[in-house]
Amino acid sequence: MIPELGHFALVIALTLALAQAILPLAGAATNRATLMGTARTLATGQFVFVAGAFAALVASFMANDFSVVNVATNSNSRLPGPYRFAASWGSHEGSMLLWTLMLAGWTFAVALFSRHLPERMVARVIGVMGLVSAGFLLFMLLTSNPFARLLPAAADGRDLNPLLQDPGMVIHPPMLYMGYVGFSVAFAFAIAALLEGRLDAAWARWSRPWTTAAWSFLTVGIMLGSWWAYYELGWGGWWFWDPVENASFMPWLAGTALIHSLAVTEKRGTFRSWTVLLAITAFSLSLVGTFLVRSGVLTSVHAFATDPARGIFILGFLVLVIGGSLALFAWRAPRVGLGGGFSPVSRESLLLANNVLLAVALAAVMLGTLYPLFLDALDAGKISVGPPYFEAVFAPLMAPAIFLMAVGPVASWKRAELPALWTRLKWAFAVAVAAGLILPFAFGRWSPLVAFGLLLAAWVIAASVVQVRARIALAPQSGLSARIAAQPAHWYGMVIAHLGIAIFIIGVTLVKGYETERDIRMAPGEKTVIGGYEFTFTGTKDVTGPNYLATQGQFEVRREGDIRIVRSMHPEKRVYQASGQTMTEADIDTGFTGDLYVSLGEPVGDGAWGVRVYHKPFVDWIWGGCLMMALGGILAIADKRYRSRMASHAKLDAALAPSKA
Amino acid sequence: MKPRTKRAAWIMAGIAALGVAVALVLNAFQSNLVFFFTPTQVAANEAPRDRAFRIGGLVEAGSLARDSDALTVRFKVTDTARTIPVVYTGILPDLFKEGKGVVAQGKLGPDGVFRASEILAKHDENYMPPAAADALKKAGHPMDKGAFAGQKTEKKS
Lengths: 661, 157
What we know:
The structure holds two protein chains of two kinds. By secondary structure, chain A is α+β, with helices and mostly antiparallel strands. Chain A has helices at residues 2-30, 33-62, 69-74, 81-87, 92-112, 119-143, 167-196, 201-232, 243-268, 272-294, 303-306, 308-336, 347-377, 387-407, 418-442, 448-474, 480-486, 489-514, 620-638, 646-656; strands at residues 383-385, 516-522, 527-530, 533-544, 548-559, 565-569, 572-576, 582-585, 587-589, 594-605, 608-617. In chain A, the strands form two sheets. In chain A, strands 3, 4, 5, 6, 7 and 8 form a six-stranded antiparallel sheet that branches. The longest helix of chain A has 32 residues, at 201-232. Chain A starts with a helix and ends in a 5-residue tail after the last helix. In chain B, strand 6 (101-108) and strand 7 form a beta hairpin. Chain B has helices spanning 3-32, 39-43, 130-138, 145-148; strands spanning 33-37, 53-59, 65-66, 72-78, 83-89, 101-108, 114-119. Chain B is built from four helices and seven strands. Chain B is of the alpha+beta class. In chain B, strands 2-4-5-7-6 form a five-stranded mixed β-barrel. Chain B has two domains: 1-31; 36-142, CATH 2.40.50.140. Chain B starts with a helix and ends in a 9-residue tail after the last helix. Strand 1 of chain A pairs antiparallel with strand 1 of chain B, so a sheet runs across the interface.
């Protein structure tokens, strides 16, 4: 009964989404307030019904209802509760429902927090989001029903993929989807601006917090995915340039360019068309990413051939959304206008350079990700593009972007003078060069790549210090704490996000430069020394988990030359009973200056095992840096200038009131 | 310089920089493409001798042998028509099994042994590397789902 209620709720949500798409947009086009006024109510209704459908799916999973195909395929009666909950979005169908729930949630949030926006803008934004939502609901109901029944019901489920039975996997997809779907708000704002034919600083100010929120979620989502891959895949890498990862990274690159471009549009009223184009791109890439990962096209492009309805629907939907919005852009962008001019040396130029570099990097990642798929789809041969390509391309493109990133906040808008910039930043530059020359010796070995990485990180940090000092020194308030408190939250957000990049670079540089990875054969009693630690393998024992049996390796870790055990480590090799699938569970000793990582390979005879013993210096700084970036984003949103200021908004309302020319 | 010429110069510089970037990207792309060959193609000398490539097929049942002192394994990859001997040193992924699909990346030695530098691990046991499935199909092997767990089949009610 519950699954049928869920299915029915989806059908109602679809009708509401269609109404939400048509009525407010028609109202905005014909300037009818009653029609425009329906937007918020319909968005709320749609949210309620999608949430109801989602709750029904979760209930089916929690109740082990194996008469639902989705549950029977992705869960098991012995699966622990939290994973049964997470299994709700473990399948293609469930993840589509989660996506739609997020979209309905963002739309509901727009409906709640847009009291101060002009009615016509709100109607269009909510209408566009309704269109997207209708597409997804239709897709689910026609091709991917999460509530489809299985007759006769299965006795027990086939279990959730063991790789996904992990706390990281419980929160990674919702975070990632919050980011993907969050860009739909920026997208809807962009489409609304194109329809309106005007795009100004006020518009940019409305879109900015939404875009930054989505970007922060996406950053955390990608970070969780990377962290999960590191400890769960059992081979200690944190980024593989796998198409699945690239699918989430491409919208992130577009989103990063977008939040910077939006800043220029708000402050200087320029970059307008480019900002709109980026908003369309970021959301289009989110759609492409969702479908790439979730449709099975990466497993095999011919998956479409086995289920043509799904493939054709997806392609049609993508063509409609991306093609339609680009056509609208081509038609309306000239009306949006270009905005004010600026000199070649100015903050605008630096941000433009940053945007161009991000766009080129995005194109390079896209080429490496999609080209093999195209070739395969055309039956023109099978190729793969591995990490060497992405590394060869990405680092040289990002290095200048990061170098300029440190200069940007110091440069003035409109026109900056190179000599003045040099005067302000020469000490920062000296510190950076010194760091690059000297610091690598502190880690044992100097190499050009490590030196360059540390130089870039030190440059960002030192330039941030210069900028913070100058800004606080110039503040009119008396007293240091008053001056610090007087600075706006969005500015602190930017500084922290940029420092996050520096922390991230330090992590990547040191782990690439000084990591030790050893895959060896170890018999009980054997030792190996790595990164200043001595690992002794003392044997294995069998342990039983809730739904798996495991062989647990026993390792004693000592500092080299010391007899005291500083830690014992217990990596596991698990066999999950329902699926019979084998899984490697690494044991990781996490530390501020690096991780010790042990995982079991396979038994190689005589009680000996193939073992991975890794030392990963500063690897956690990679994810710490990502968290700082996201935290910077959150601080930026918290800025009080985004919050309701009725007086000034009333003025904006007046300025933007529907003016029939 | 007049503002106009100055702006033109900046734009030219920008385009030149972009051109260099695109050239670098395409060059890196060209030199890092990894092509895929089936055992039959390798046997017919179609695969390059000096460049890394991928092979795929089934791990022939009973072909897996392990050197006793280290982590070196030897096995044969077959597309049911031809087989290629493979040697690999390192830890095999969890999903590596005799009789199951596999994709290996490496170089072909002068002795005709494929020296794998990487054995591809994938996330799902029902997953057949598409390249491996393709190799079998090209060799005219009936798609026997049982033998290699098939490609993930979508269940419908």
